Amino acid sequence: MSMQPPHRPLSPHLQIYKPQITSVLSITHRITGIGLSVGMFFLFYWLGAIATNAEAYGIALSFFKSWLGQVILILCLFGFYYHLANGIRHLAWDMGYGFSLKVVTITGWLVMGAAILMTLITIII
After folding, report:
1. Which residue, of 20, 60, 78, 107, has the fewest CB within 10 Å?
2. pLDDT of residue 48
3. Which H, E and C letters describe the chain, residue by residue?
4. CATH number belonging to the domain at 21-124, selected among 1.20.1300.10, 3.10.28.10, 3.40.720.10, 2.40.30.20
5. Which stretches of the chain drop beneath a pLDDT of 50?
């Protein structure tokens, strides 16, 4: 009797299933969580520059005014607002609301719309 495990096919993955709003939002939630963690280093850099001296703050400010700094800030803003909106959605789920397929789809699109809208409003203001 062989002790080797039988050769079974792997369960279907991203190549098999077409993307659905729930899977896209789940992956996006994980990506934005990682992005916010990385973004914390930029926050710490900025706070450290403020605490150091005016010259260090000027250098940090010039970085955040550059195109790269602006892109980083916008991505961090979107990640924050997306995480906030999706977190509220998850709180509703924790209370037992919003599990029907129709409501899950609607709230998923609302999360994306709210994150984009709040990001744009913050940029404009």
Report:
1. 20
2. 97
3. CCCCCCCCCCCCCCCCCCCCHHHHHHHHHHHHHHHHHHHHHHHHHHHHHHHHCHHHHHHHHHHHHCHHHHHHHHHHHHHHHHHHHHHHHHHHHHCCCCCCHHHHHHHHHHHHHHHHHHHHHHHHC
4. 1.20.1300.10
5. none
Place of tokens 């999360």: 111
What residues have CB less than 8 Å from 115, skipping those under 6 apart?
78, 81, 82, 84, 85, 86
